[in-house]
Design a protein that fits this description.
Length: about 230
Amino acid sequence: MHLALRYSLGDWAACVLLFCVGLYLDRAKPFEQYIGNRLADPSISYPHTPPEQQQVTANQLIFIALVFPACAIGGTQLLLRRRRSSDLNQALLGLLSSVALALTLVCFVKNAYGRLRPDFLARCRPVGSGASAACSNLGPEVVEGRKSFPSGHSALSMAGEAYLSLWLGAKLMHAELPATLALGGTLWRLMLAAVPWLFALWVGLSRIEDYWHHWEDVVVGVLLALSPYH
């Protein structure tokens, strides 16, 4: 076993454990807010966009938050001729821990708050009024409709892509590039490093457009993802 990997086994184990905690919380039931006084609330009366019709599906989120950043890090290491396994090990460990921490924080807050999504009434199809109001639809989409705050898509995509942006920025600013590229200055390096961050920002905006999140959910999701870097 490589020396760098052996000395980071504890960190990898802690990271995997944190990820498992986040996945467990993701499947837990959230706090159920009272809806009797919100049956005509316009903020939760938007139409429902089915999961498969979202601009960014759950499977695509995994690719955006983990698969693409990991591949980009590995490819950049090869292009820059930095093939030390210790560098790659630390970079991937940082990526996974960033996403795992965001997942756990987001799911914990989601379950504790139980904020209703913008499309909650379309999911719930309430019957009755006042204290007797209840959802006629008892499917899992109603449970999911109580997990608006903060935005998981925004937090996870930003956790992975912002990490990639910072990593790329550090590597490109300090890497020994070929003379033809080195003469190009530094602005192009900063612009290239900013692309993943902008991509994650688009993911957050898509959640508002799909009526799965309020704008506050997206803002707090982004801030939670970026909090380790403050």
